[in-house]
UniProtKB/TrEMBL annotation:
Highest taxon of source: Bacteria
Record organism: Pseudomonas beijingensis
Organism classification: Bacteria, Pseudomonadati, Pseudomonadota, Gammaproteobacteria, Pseudomonadales
UniProt-recorded name of the protein: Cation transporter
The HMA domain, residue ranges: 1-63
Xref: CDD domains: HMA
Coiled-coil intervals: none
Annotated Pfam families: HMA (PF00403)
Keywords: Metal-binding
Length: 65
C-alpha cells in the first residue's frame, strides 16, 4: 500500500477524478481517498512515480506521505 499527501481535494468529484486517474493506469488498483486527512492510499502494482504522475495530471499537488 502506497500513501500520498494530496492537496486541493475537497469533494466527491475529487475522489472520483483521482480514483479514475489511477485506475486508468491499473484497472485493478484499490484507491482509498481520505478528504479530511488529505491522503490517498493506493494498492497497485504501479510504481509510486506512475501514481504520482496520474494524480498530478488531474491538477492536484501530490507528494509521497
Amino acid at each position: 500500500m502506497q500513501t500520498f499527501n494530496v492537496q486541493g481535494m475537497s469533494c466527491g468529484h475529487c475522489v472520483k477524478a483521482i480514483t479514475q486517474a489511477v485506475q486508468a493506469k491499473d484497472p485493478t488498483a484499490d484507491v482509498q481517498v481520505d478528504l479530511g486527512a488529505k491522503t490517498v492510499r493506493v494498492q497497485s502494482s504501479l510504481a509510486a512515480d506512475a501514481v504520482l504522475a496520474a494524480i498530478q495530471k488531474e491538477g492536484y499537488e501530490v507528494s509521497p506521505a
